[in-house]
Amino acid sequence: MGEAVAALVAPDAPVHLCHPFGEVPGGAGFAEAALAPLWAAMPDAERRVDVSIRGTDGHGQEWHGEAGHYAGTFAGPFLGIPPTGRMAFLRFHEFYRMEGARAVEVQAVWDLPDLMMQARVWPMGPALGRTGLVPGPMTQDGRAQSGDGAEAKVVVLDMLDHLHLSPQGEAAMRLDAFWHPRCAWYGPGGIGTARGIAGFRAHHQIPFLDALPDRRGLVEQGHFFGEGDYAAFTAWPGMEMTVTGGGWLGIAPAGQRITMRSLDFWRVEGRLIRENWVLVDLLHVWDQLGVDVLGRMRQLL
Description:
Blueprint: H1 2-8, E1 14-17, E2 23-25, H2 26-41, E3 46-56, E4 62-73, E5 87-99, E6 102-110, H3 112-118, H4 150-163, H5 170-173, H6 175-178, E7 179-186, E8 193-195, H7 196-211, E9 216-217, E10 223-227, E11 230-234, E12 239-242, E13 257-260, E14 262-269, E15 272-280, H8 282-288, H9 293-298
Parallel strand pairs: 1-6, 7-15
Antiparallel strand pairs: 1-2, 3-4, 4-5, 5-6, 7-8, 9-12, 10-11, 11-14, 12-13, 14-15
Helix pairs in contact: 1-2
């Protein structure tokens, strides 16, 4: 696996990884810093891809995005997370900026909070949404797309534009105009999965907006692209905000300015968003607020 990654990712490519890995150089750095320890912890690990799309962003750059799980027997410790001796699933969202056949930049978030939950050593507050294995697309077509994704991108961008109207109230966001009544919002460990607009509001959006009312998406400087019925967005970071309220993840209103890395995939059905896969680098959020989640976890062991 390490050799394949080193061949795919250019030696001088910046590889942006979630906390605590940080930024490493090239495919060899990616393999050494993150993949080799993972393979040591899960010797029989497989990389299972549920969504794979490629397209050109608004800056004229070609991006390839993949979502899925590393799956295998959790046989040894990983980042101090104790092994379970059972099958485990480490969810990933990985984005590769391509020039020809090689990646010249990588942005990746792995769902480390969910892996801690599988090992029963999650040291933070319980998720409001449903936790556990996140499914791939209900249409089973996440790796078989055709078309430039133009319609999907329009729907998602319109939705994001209206989300920025949240200070004007729920009606201004027009959620019913963009989200399917039976939509699924697949959040990261620590937040969880929400069903339908009511579930999305109760289990993620309302606590999020109450705590971070001035949050601003950095769409213009990020990378938004699509293929077929899918759209995707990545940026490093993708949002900035001030923690001024309570109620989100149990975080106190510190009044501190933070950024957030969020890598997203959407599937559009009949001009409505049916499924949305979201990974947020939550350990980086807590780290900016002076909380070492992995250190707190070690106190449980």
